[in-house]
Please model this.
Amino acid sequence: MCHIGITILLLVVFLFHPEFAIAQIAPTNSATISGSVSDVAGKPVVGGQVSLKGPKHAATETDSHGDFIFVGVPFGDYQISTVATGLGTITRAFSVQGDTNLAIQYEPTSVNGLKTIASVNTSANARFNVTSASITQVNPMQSTFEGNTSWRTILEQIPGVAQAGLGNGGSVYAALPDSPIVPVQISINGALPYETATLLDDMPLIGSSASVGSAGAGTGTDLSFYPLNGFSTADVVRGPGANAPSIVDSIGGSFVLHSPGVITENHYDLSVSTDPYGGIVTNLLAAVHWKKLSTIVTYGVNDSPGPAVSTGIPGSAGTVITPSTINGVGPFSPYTPPCSSPCQFGNYLVSPNYATLQGFYGYQQGLLMCCLSIQNTSWSEHSGSFALNYMLSPSTSAGFFYAGQTISYVSPYQYVTVNFAPPAGYTGAIGAGQYFFSSNSFLTPVYNEQASSLLEEKITTQLGSGLLRLAALQNRIFSTFSRSTPASASVQLFGGGTLNGTPTIFNGGTYDVTFTPLSALSSDGNDNRDLLLSYTTPLGENFHAGASFVKSYYNIPGNSLCIFNGIPISSSATPSAISQTTNEFRLFVGGNPSEKTSLDLSMYLVNADYHLPANYMGSPNNNIMYTDQRYSYAAPRLGFIWRPTAAVAVRAAAGGGFAEAPLNDLAGFNGIFNYGAYYVQDKQNLNLQPEKSFGFDLGTDIRLRRNMVLSFDVYRSNLYGQIYNSTSLTGTYLGAPLYTTEYGNLGISRYEGILLDVRHDVPQGLYWSLSGGLTRGYLVSVPTGFYNTAGGTCVLSTGAYCQNLTVVPNINFNGQFATSIPYSQGLGVFGYRWSQEKYLNLTMTYYGNNNTYFRPAFAEFNGNIGYPVTKNMSLLVTFRNITGVYDGPTQTFSAANLSGAPTITGLPYPLYGEEYGPRTIILTMDIHT
Model:
């Protein structure tokens, strides 16, 4: 009863506090149960009677291939029985939390007089989809117990689903592939990260934390914040299915996470693995069923030394903080260009008192320090979950779910450019020009910490003839970093400045230097709270209808502080009042007009509210004026399935979608940023509109023969008013060029592609699968006058009077929108299985041109060996990246224009390839009951 009181209290709070909002919808949580029946020798059993008992009762018989199928099975606990002449009865209890495939085989002997099911396979391998959307199911929890440490591992092997979290080549954390730190922001069917919803039991997980190297707050849900070992299953839902959880931020589809459900028997699991860098990964699971109570607890630790650290790029130079003394002599002042009031300090405008700090970050100053290194890139991750389900009565259940994670680590580093302007009289080896330097060359590591807390409460009860669901979710993310200068260091110096009042030239000698104390602290986070209410009721024997409502709230508070020589010189705060609220209401009806057809129709009604600053300048301001923006949208979705035989399902779906502008895009940041040779201003656009879309998906699943399934889909989505950002030269500032970046709306954009998947899966013997996808995303048209400035008509040949020239129609999106859409992706698996735990396989993952690693097309190979040592212990050996493709050093380059100014030639910024991951052998020991 305690859980009922808490959930009712949360409901009251949500309904009377409008700051809680953004919406996703509860579908009819149902699954497809498919499978096969075979005799002792493995031959198909034809005409066998198969019955299902549980929340739904159904019966069928196996076809000429020994196959059977049940459609529209509500989630819950079931018992399946198979009766075959001369073979007896097989009975087994199991839980349905998603599409399930059962491989039923009669055994030579019986247990307690009954035959048993040889295996239950709930993986995507043998999936036979009969929903109006293309669905691929993965098991994150199982993935961790197989030695995987990153969401990337299970997502990149799904063609058409790009792991877009590499930050467009600019994420320094991509230098640590296969680590839990790398941002993971997925894109489904080409849609960008902010256009791809991530949901927990149909409630949205919104946003990212900006300071940890993701693409920034609001640009897409960063899965790296959430424990991989916490979720029992996850569904990649592609296309505009009529039963989609939501149309909000689901242009290409949704990624739906599920908390662990009810279990029917106790079991325990312990897995110990090595990680790609020689660290130790430990995961534990305890699942206990006692009377009306069902509990699952997971906990994992990943302690890793990180990759080997380079000592710097030979021949390059890195800037650091200006020394206070050199070889004990000081004070030292760098060569600094004249600075008028107010001067630009880093990313902040400061008073003339700090004019001498113009060269603080090394831009345009006459001193360079060479060949610095970061001393440590290790991390420590603690993650886990707790799921509790309790049957209050035969018709009412209450659930509680918590998932949390903390990661402490030392930041790796990336390289950007600096303009080197040596003083007169310098004749050293490094000449004037632009050089790479390490952005973290503060001579001390940058310490980071990120954490997440996910809390869900839910009640499901029978109300009349229907099912009522009520759930509340609190999702919080937090990240922080700190760094400070050391007291002293020994480095090479080039260039010069004024030492103890005397102009001094340095030509590459090694000097002992001390530094003026500097420290920087920053924290970012977001608060996301959701409410879900849904009701579904049958209409006769073949139809159902219902309604659902989801309300969600999201904000992104943050603070930063920089202290120089004990004096706070800059600070910034994102007010917590900046927020977005979304409400989504859905009416739906569906059913089976005939034995071979299903029809679903949904109507979605959405409104999104933003509370934004009207005069926010990105720094503390006690007089911020706020404005409220509201957007409304309504769209239908229709799904149809035709099943001419038990071995064929043809599906079609069409409908609208709605993508909100990421909160930061609307909030803006109107400060002027100093990049040395030029300045950049990010302008606020309160007229920015949400995207609207209409898409369709046509597909089929065909069981070619026993244990072999073919799936095919073709899709297209048209977007109206897609959000973009573009930079244009708009004037000068402090005598240097001023480029203005602003978010706006395009005309028509399009995502389209085809997907093909063939899988042959057996309990024993050879198994294989081949899947691939061709995807394209491009701009079709732009608004009238899109390229013209206020000064005149754009002349493309010269660039005069032109703006937005980085936005070009009919070119595949390739980094301009914070992701790359691979032209093609593929996965091949070939292996032999003696049992579920004894197998050998080889996998090939193919990444076509325009991939998220910004490399030419390449393929990566893995090998896996599973071997049961005893009944309760198994060993798994993974040979990762066998060929060593792009298995290079950890350095990564920024996806900025390395010539020193934004590109306005109509082509995207230059991109520099990321590393795929180390070639390594990972050993995993799994002890289970």
About this structure: The mean pLDDT is 77.
